[in-house]
Amino acid sequence: MNKVFIIDGDKFSNFKGFSDIVLSGKYNWQGNLDAFDDILFGGFGDIEYEEQYTIIWRNSAKSKEDFGYSETIVKLNENLNNCHQSNEEKVIQEIKDAEINKGPTIFDWIEEIILDNENVTLILE
């Protein structure tokens, strides 16, 4: 039987809270989504390299709302403050889009990262 990790949307209400508790909490990834993808691939924390496992995201509808456009704008502004100068224009456009409820949200980004990982089965509850 493969490992099962529970993400409970009732235990956080913003991206910072999510990044503090996601998976086992043994590996501190500090909210970088590229690092999150690396953790899902394995070799960090409780996931072995290319190990098959399941993530059950309880209260995912709450998380989808919590990680909507308002929270996405917060994250994009953080990205803008930390990005390379060559990426500023792209991030500014993403912020403008999010301000009119256009484009992907943080929830969409996280879901896509999980679903793109062949080793993970995602169950949204």
Shape: globular
Mean pLDDT across the residues is 89
Which sequence of SSEs, written as H and E, runs from N to C?
A: EHHEHHHHE
Q: How far is it from the N-terminal to the C-terminal residue, by CA?
A: 20 Å
Identify the strand order in the major beta sheet.
1-2-3
Total beta-strand segments: 3
Largest sheet geometry: 3 strands, parallel
Q: In angstroms, what is the radius of gyration?
A: 15 Å
Number of helices: 6
Structural class: alpha/beta
Range of helix content:
40-55%
Question: Uncertain spans, ≥5 residues at pLDDT below 50?
Answer: none
Proportion of strand residues? 5-15%
What does this molecule look like?
The chain is 48% helix and 14% strand. It has 125 residues and is α/β, with parallel strands linked by helices. A 3-stranded parallel β-sheet has the order 1-2-3, with helices on one face.
